[in-house]
Amino acid sequence: MTDSAAASSDFPDISQNPAETPTFHGLKPLATKRERELQEIFGDGGMLARAIDGYRSREPQTEMARAVAAAMDTHDTLIAEAGTGTGKTYAYLVPAMLWGGKTIISTGTKHLQDQIFARDIPTVRKALAVPVTVAMLKGRANYLCHYYLERAQQEGRFASRHEAAQLREIVTFAQITHSGDKAELASVPENAPIWAQVTSTRDNCLGQDCPRYKDCFVMQARKEAQQADLVVVNHHLFFADVMLRDTGMAELLPSANTVIFDEAHQLPETATLFFGETVSTGQMLELARDCVAEGLIHARDAADWVKLGANLERATRDVRLTFGQDNTRMSVAQLADDHELFGALDSVDVALQDMIETLQHQAERAEALGTCLRRALELHQQLERWRTGATPPAPGESPLPLLDPDAPRVTDGKREKAAKAREAEAARLAAEAKPASGTSTGDGATEKTYTPPETVRWIEVFSQAVQLHQTPLSIAPIFSKQRAGAPRAWIFTSATLSVKGNFMHYAAQLGLDAGKSLTLASPFDYPNQSLLYVPRGLPQPSAPGFTDAVLDAALPVLEVSGGRAFVLCTTLRAVNRAAERLREEFDRRGWPYPLLVQGEASRTELLDRFRALGNAVLVGSQSFWEGVDVRGEALSLVIIDKLPFAPPDDPVLAARLDALTKKGLSPFAVHQLPQAVITLKQGAGRLIRSELDRGVLMICDPRLVDKPYGRRIWQSLPPFKRTRELPIVRGFFDEIAAEAGD
């Protein structure tokens, strides 16, 4: 269980002080009747054991179900870290079906979303024999759009004959599908480019003005979700609605009694993505193409649409040319005042205002042209906010008034003068602002009057695109604002939320109460099932040739493990070097281990091949650190090159660390270290996935042993048996081989 009072001085106590002494993980104790009911369900010979083959009663699972039920009873908040194998999904599904009322379950990955909807919910519902209705809601890009399907047929813009054939399959699919979910059409891959032509986006959806609105698959899915007792969504869908009001959550959330976030360790990153604001060259190019297409259909003689679109496209593509060939990320502060980007954005703005001016005179001729005008105005607003540093609208706020068609053009001089005036006004208002009295959030906490968080403006450059971001340094005030209002239960669960049982870092990121939490140990026998190996003699990660030194240490272990390994790297550069070196070594030594490398195929395909081969070595980076479940002998060794500290050159991280320093806090202790621990726990969690799994976790970073903070890191991992000696590792694998031969 969590002992919040045991927090190290490195982690300041940012939890709220409850008015009463916590008696049950910081929550009001569960009623005796509820306790008995849960025991009858989860206990030996209980309802789950009778209905599910192979089910075994586990006290940690029952304990989590009690805590979840207690939070639901009082509309409170719970943070639950449940070790691998605890059975956390059943632990929250049972109370949700019985006492959760209208429940939204949000997952971090589509894989878990599908698993909960298609497997776990039906299993628990049948075991409990409860008449619970269920729906799964996805983002609009997953649903076929009748309007854009018809437009694609009319335009006939195909990159190849294969794409034209795919469109014919989609046309047939549209006539027979009930849901319109593109995942149902297996013959056309979900990532096929043709889908972009036959699905809608928030930007180009015609809404109620669409001639096919009554048949809309997106609206149908939202209606089903509105009527269901349990709705399964994903984090991206949930948070997109906070700022965009475009996912159907706007209707769902007010009616929900319970919100459950599974894979909740991903929330800070996902929420940061959506609570900020991004303008991309891709949005501009898509707008230009749609304006030309709709203009030629509905107002061909009114303007030179092709020229207008070409001007906007050309100006937009020139933005990418202001940077070098390499992909990069940088803050605005890193750019010189006369950087070419600013001039290129001026040209985009001129071309965009030309398009807006034309659309304002033609928008009434067709709903599609009106939609193009709305998009163009919104992009103009967003671009202006990014250029001037104006704060994006808060959750639930309307954006600033749209561009006045009679207003004069904004010249460079006027723009600069207006920007300075806005900055001065914002500074004056911030200085005059006074703290206001608090209001209740519904979970016993007090919500302070919302104050927009400080933001950082930065640029992300890709091979053919540029994104302009404005990102909040803290998402806690925005998320707290979202959680305020009608009382409801909020459950946050994952296998990795704490640092040595301390939830301070995670709670601070989201503005939660760290005292309302519990840690549930994994039921796996880690001391006997696994071994943590930190090789001796490795250089510091910053040393030249570090990756080669890691591979020198890893090759003898790969030999005794017979392949069957993940090599998890912290950078793509290390992935490429590791793949190159391992390919050379395997060929030179004649080892028969297939080598699978991130980027050579999709993640799903690589994992399927890894499981099927049985002796492969897979080299990957961040996307393989979590959400990967390989059980059995196919994965017996996980090699991690170094502790996963986030790169300090990340613009958002750099700004957050600078803000902590200005507050007199240690950025390393308060942010970098706990975040690295949580990420490392995810990577380490790939190894032991069942009671029968056995294997070695090899961490090749000497800081785990040499640095004072290393102890805090390895003590946060499961209780592996530990060694620094290669002969002990060999003996461990020999023992596994001997047992397999018996």
Automatic annotation (TrEMBL):
Gene: dinG
Domain Helicase ATP-binding stretches: 47-339
UniProtKB keywords: ATP-binding, Helicase, Hydrolase, Nucleotide-binding
PROSITE patterns: HELICASE_ATP_BIND_2
Classification via InterPro entries: ATP-dep_Helicase_C, DinG/Rad3-like, Helic_SF1/SF2_ATP-bd_DinG/Rad3, P-loop_NTPase
Biased composition (Basic and acidic residues): 406-426
Protein family (similarity comment): Belongs to the helicase family. DinG subfamily.
One MF annotation (Gene Ontology) recorded for this entry: DNA helicase activity
PANTHER family for this protein: DNA REPAIR DEAD HELICASE RAD3/XP-D SUBFAMILY MEMBER, REGULATOR OF TELOMERE ELONGATION HELICASE 1
Stretches for region Disordered: 1-28, 388-450
Pfam families named in the record: Helicase_C_2
SUPFAM superfamilies for this protein: P-loop containing nucleoside triphosphate hydrolases
One of the protein's GO biological processes: DNA repair
Bias (Low complexity): 427-436
Organism domain of life: Bacteria
Gene3D superfamilies: P-loop containing nucleotide triphosphate hydrolases
Protein name per the record: Putative ATP-dependent helicase DinG
EC number: 3.6.4.12
